[in-house]
RNA sequence: GCAGCUGUAGCUCAGUUGGUUAGAGCGUCGGAUUGUGGAUCCGAAGGUCCCUGGUUCGAGACCAGGCAGCUGUACCA
């Protein structure tokens, strides 16, 4: 290997913002998504898969231009020069699907989807350019009962996943109420669009910067610890007070919060409509037995800035846990959604009321993992049958077959190395047991079974090499006919 | 994008005011043991000190400019 050829080799490395997912997490996420699926199915939602790639214009993204070919979304041109993009959420493809199949679908259409989405953005801690979402949507119903159902369904899902009542909360708000408050402080109208956006962004940051930070952002602006300055919305002090008061209007009960909101929106028609929708949802929550400990009305929820037109909601995990470094971690939001009444209209021209919710699978999974709810490490590694005698591979193959028929995960060593390497292999695999049958055992019609975990524990106490070598720790012989029985017993002892 | 911090072995990191041949732990590989992983002992391999230029008798260290990473922040349909 010359230096030259070495330089020409590509470096083995994952792309920035992407990651490999190991066996434990693959199994754990599968288990978790199965639970979510069961809840959604129980609520009557139908599964759907949409492609990873859509025409860029169908995703509602501006066509890439020469200056910004991939801003936020991974895009490329097809043979016919049409722009294609990797999906960046599961809602835009759903809107396309519904618009394309409207006649064939029942109204309302109730569906769920799960899968990878991609965003071409700067990755951060716990933030990747590929991640998994699990969505449910009701398309074609304007009723707040459809929104209320989403909230209750996510609450149920959390409990089915082992998150105790009180450790999560659904926070619900309504964009119309926010609009009403903005009207009341005189920033309505198209000329104030930019300022309203800044206000919404400021409110969205309550969990990170607290009320004081939000007030700074509503007013002049805020400087972060690195010295970077963020320009604020430059509201008048009285308006800052009013918005801050709104954000802080959450009361212990839904009824009390609604009263405060009604007062804050004044006589704004839109604001009142929002409060009325929240009242209807609140009544449904109460009727279905979803208490204040599960679903709250919280005016601080705004959910990004995008397409939401009515109720918005967010599921927040409230407990804390310690990560590997022993630091306290707050989980925050693991999912959310809301009403979007304009998305299908982009294709058909007709307004189709819709509401949906999205769970961040990867984020929820890391939360469950820190809580010890993922059952990682519960899948037992296979029993390894060593190949002592190459000519007798058929015999070893028969042994693993017998074990598998008995429901025991087992494999024959398929490498080409000697016994020592085979032991190392089994060790690295975390195998519970190895099965050994060399010439000596064969002659006696026996097999040796070695308990690797027990062996490792006993080895800790061995002081010198002679003992170590002699000990042949944690292994025993049984008649060949008793292989399954003995393996079963040894596994049961663990 | 903006700001701060950091780039030395596969990993985690030492490396004195600028001074000879750049170190440790862990890991890897080999031996003690050609039928035994894991304890123990012995040994070995492994380096573009991020890159380019500059200062200097001399740079891993100092300076400038790049690049990369981390963290925060902005944007985020």
In short:
This protein has 494 residues and is an alpha+beta fold. The protein is 40% helix and 20% strand.
Keywords:
RNA-binding; elongated; 494 residues; BirA Bifunctional Protein, domain 2; Rossmann fold; alpha+beta; five-stranded mixed beta sheet
What does this molecule look like?
There is one protein chain. The chain contains 18 helices and 18 strands. α5 (175-184) packs antiparallel against α10 (269-287) and α6 packs antiparallel against α7 (206-218). It is an alpha+beta fold and 494 residues long. Strands 1-5-6-13-12-11-7-10 form an 8-stranded mixed β-sheet. A 5-stranded mixed β-sheet has the order 15-14-16-17-18. It has helices at 3-8, 23-42, 91-100, 144-160, 175-184, 193-204, 206-218, 237-247, 254-265, 269-287, 345-348, 361-370, 393-405, 419-428, 439-444, 452-459, 465-471, 483-492, and strands at 46-47, 53-55, 75-77, 83-86, 109-118, 130-139, 168-174, 221-223, 229-231, 295-297, 311-322, 328-339, 354-360, 383-385, 410-412, 433-436, 446-451, 475-479. The chain is 40% helix and 20% strand. The two termini are 48 Å apart. The radius of gyration is 30 Å and the shape is elongated. It has 2 domains: 23-370, Bira Bifunctional Protein, Domain 2 (BirA Bifunctional Protein, domain 2, 2-Layer Sandwich), CATH 3.30.930; 383-492, Rossmann fold. It binds one RNA strand of 77 nucleotides through residues 16, 59-62, 71-73, 88-89, 91-92, 119, 121-122, 124-125, 201, 224-230, 304-307, 386, 388, 418-428, 431, 434, 436, 438-440, 448, 450, 452-453, 455-465, 468-469, 472-473, 475.
């Amino acid at each position: 290997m010359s230096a030259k050829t070495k330089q020409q080799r590509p470096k083995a490395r994952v792309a920035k913002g992407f990651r490999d997912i190991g066996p434990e997490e693959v199994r754990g996420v599968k288990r978790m998504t199965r639970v979510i699926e069961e809840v959604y199915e129980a609520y009557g939602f139908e599964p759907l898969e949409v492609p990873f790639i859509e025409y860029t214009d169908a995703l509602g993204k501006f066509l890439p231009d020469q200056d910004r070919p991939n801003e936020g979304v991974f895009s490329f041109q097809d043979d016919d020069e049409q722009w294609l993009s990797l999906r960046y959420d599961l809602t835009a493809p759903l809107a396309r699907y519904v618009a394309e199949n409207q006649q064939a679908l029942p109204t309302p259409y109730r569906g769920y989807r799960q899968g990878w989405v991609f965003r071409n953005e700067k990755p951060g801690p716990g933030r990747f350019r590929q991640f998994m979402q699990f969505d449910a949507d009701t398309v074609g119903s304007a009723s707040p009962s459809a929104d209320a159902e989403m909230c209750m369904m996510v609450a149920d899902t959390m409990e089915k996943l082992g998150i105790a009542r009180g450790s999560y909360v659904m926070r619900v708000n309504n964009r119309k109420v926010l609009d009403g408050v903005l009207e009341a402080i005189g920033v309505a109208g198209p000329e104030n669009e930019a300022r309203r956006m800044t206000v919404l962004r400021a409110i969205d940051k309550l969990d990170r910067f607290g009320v004081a930070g939000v007030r700074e952002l509503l007013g002049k602006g805020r400087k972060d610890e690195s010295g970077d300055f963020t320009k604020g919305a430059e509201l008048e002090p009285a308006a800052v007070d009013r918005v801050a008061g709104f954000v802080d209007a959450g009361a212990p009960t839904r009824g009390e919060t609604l009263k405060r909101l009604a007062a804050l929106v004044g006589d704004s028609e839109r604001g009142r409509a929002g409060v009325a929708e929240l009242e209807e949802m609140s009544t449904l929550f109460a009727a279905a037995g979803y208490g204040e400990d599960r679903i709250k009305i919280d005016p601080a929820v705004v959910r990004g800035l995008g397409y939401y037109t009515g109720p918005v909601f967010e599921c927040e995990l409230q407990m804390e846990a310690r990560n590997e470094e022993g630091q306290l971690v707050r989980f925050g939001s693991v999912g959310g959604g809301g009403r979007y009444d304009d998305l299908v209209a982009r294709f058909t021209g007709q307004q189709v009321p819709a509401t949906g919710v999205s769970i961040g699978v990867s984020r929820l999974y890391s939360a469950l993992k820190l809580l010890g709810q993922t059952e990682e490490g519960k899948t037992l590694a296979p029993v390894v049958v060593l190949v002592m005698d190459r000519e007798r591979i058929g015999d070893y193959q028969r042994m693993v077959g017998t074990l598998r028929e008995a429901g025991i995960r087992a494999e024959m060593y398929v490498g080409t190395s000697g016994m020592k390497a085979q032991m190392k292999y089994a060790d690295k695999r975390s195998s519970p047991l190895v099965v050994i049958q060399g010439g000596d055992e064969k002659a006696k019609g026996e097999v040796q079974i070695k308990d690797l975990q027990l062996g490792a524990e006993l080895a800790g106490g061995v002081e010198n090499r002679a003992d170590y070598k002699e000990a042949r720790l944690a292994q025993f012989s049984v008649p060949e006919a008793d292989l399954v029985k003995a393996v079963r017993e040894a596994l049961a002892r663990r």
